[in-house]
Amino acid sequence: MKLLKPENALIEELLATIRDKNTPYYVFREDLERLGELLIIEALKELKLKEKTVETPVAPAKVKTVSEEVVFIAILRAGLSLLPAALRVFPKGRLGFIGTYRNEETLQPVNYYVKFPLLKSARYVLLDPMLAMGGTAEQAVKVLLEKGIEENNITFISIVSAPEGIRRLEKFRGLTIITASVDEKLNGNGYIVPGLGDAGDRFCGTENVEVVESHGV
Question: Which CATH fold would you assign to the domain 2-48+66-204?
Answer without folding.
Answer: Rossmann fold (3.40.50)
